[in-house]
Amino acid sequence: MSMARNFFLHLHTINTHRFIVCKLCFKMGLYRQGLTHDLSKYSPEEFIPSVKYFQGDKSPIVAERDDLGYSRAWLHHQGRNKHHWQYWMEFISGDIVVDEVPLRYIKEMVADRIAACMVYQKEKYHPSSALEFLENGTEKNFMPPKTLATLREYLTWVAENDLDTALEMVKNDETGN
Q1: Which of 9, 118, 125, 149 stands 20 to 30 A from 19 (CA)?
Q2: Phi and psi of 5, rounded to 5°?
C-alpha cells in the first residue's frame, strides 16, 4: 500500500477506535477519559510509524516489532496513557516495580480493548473477543495481580452479558476484584 493510502486508512482506524472508546466510556460515566482517550496516537512519534507499518487487520505495533524487535510507537504510547498497565511500572535499582492500575483506568482499559477488537476483528468480533485476547496473550503474566483480576472479571461480564448491561455493571463497581 502507498504511504498516502496508509495515512488515510490509519487515520480512519484511530478515529474509529477513539469514537467507539468514547461511546463506551460515556456509558460508564467516564466522560473526560472518553474525550481524551489515545490522543497521543496523533503525535508524530506514534502516527508516522503507524502509517509506515499500517496493516488494517492488526495494530501497526506488531509489524514495527517484527521489523525492529521492539516498537518505538508503543514505548511512546504506553508511557502517556494511564489506561495501559505498563504506564504504572518503573525500573528501580534493577528491579521492576509495577503498581496496581487505579479502577477508573481499568474501566477505560475495558473500553479500549473492546474497541480494539471491534476495529481489527470487524465482523468476526464477538462479546468474548477482548477476554480471549487477554487470556491468549502473555501480558497477563506481567500485570499487577489485582489489575489483572479486575480486568478479567470485567471482560467476563462483557462476554456473558449484553454490552450495555456489562458496561452498567462495570460503571457501578467501586471495589474492583
Answers
A1: 149
A2: -65, -45
The pLDDT of residue 84 is above 90? yes
Task: Give the 3-state secondary structure of 18-81.
Answer: HHHHHHHHHHCCCHHHHHHCCHHHHCHHHHHHHHHCCCCCCCHHHHHHHHHCCCHHHHHHHCCC
102-107 own/partner pairs: CB under 8 Å, 24+ apart = 103/150, 103/173, 103/174, 103/176, 104/30, 104/33, 105/33, 106/147, 106/150, 106/151, 106/154, 106/176, 107/25, 107/28, 107/30, 107/154, 107/170, 107/171
Identify the burial level of 20 via C-beta atoms within 10 angstroms of its C-beta, where 0-12 means exposed, 13-18 middle and 19 or more buried: buried
- Which residue do the cell numbers 507499518 mark? 53
Q: Give the separation between CA 148 and CA 125, rounded to whole angstroms.
A: 22
